[in-house]
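Lab notebook, bench 4. The sequencing result for the construct came back, and we need a structural model before the next group meeting so we can plan mutations. Quick request posted to the team channel:

Model the 3D structure of this chain.
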Amino acid sequence: MTARTATVRRKTGETEIEITLNLDGQGHAQVSTGVGFLDHMLSALTRHARFDLTVQATGDLHVDEHHTVEDVAITLGQALGEALGDRAGITRMGHAMVPMDEALALVAVDIGGRGYSVFDGPFDTPRIGQMGTSLVPHFFESLAMEARMNLHARLLAGRDDHHRAEALFKALARALHQATRLDPTLGGDLPSTKNFIAT
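Done. Here's the predicted structure in token form:
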């Protein structure tokens, strides 16, 4: 089987990021972004998607965390798209419902080549640690657009914003794990009635 890996580098006037992703990993993460809560969420995503992920990011955190969070999502989305290659033989769609104490999140994805994001999840506080809660839906949207996947995320229950966000990231992880698996019944064909994946 061809290795489904990618290394993507992104350098702007605001951030410098390097991400290495292995879709067929063991859930190992080495993550350093300077934003503690983002590191925590990326580590959870890696573990539950069963990817291997290395993220090294520096950004203008003296301004705020927005550019770093956004650009990590962009770079991770690009790495996911590159690691998937032509997307032949993958399950393509996946979904997961994940509880985190009182919180419950649902995420569904279709990595068929079309970027779109729908996020329905209120937060009560402006920040979780160093990360603004408004950046959670922004991370999901940036990831979806760059990975060229449909992503629907919905919070079904929850009171604690940390639990809400963590349930969402874990549900995203489980949905991605399911969608990126190779389906032996496809025999390497594209998972589309059109026999075409949008680019």
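The domain at 5-186 is CATH 3.30.230.40 (Ribosomal Protein S5; domain 2).
Will bring this to the meeting.
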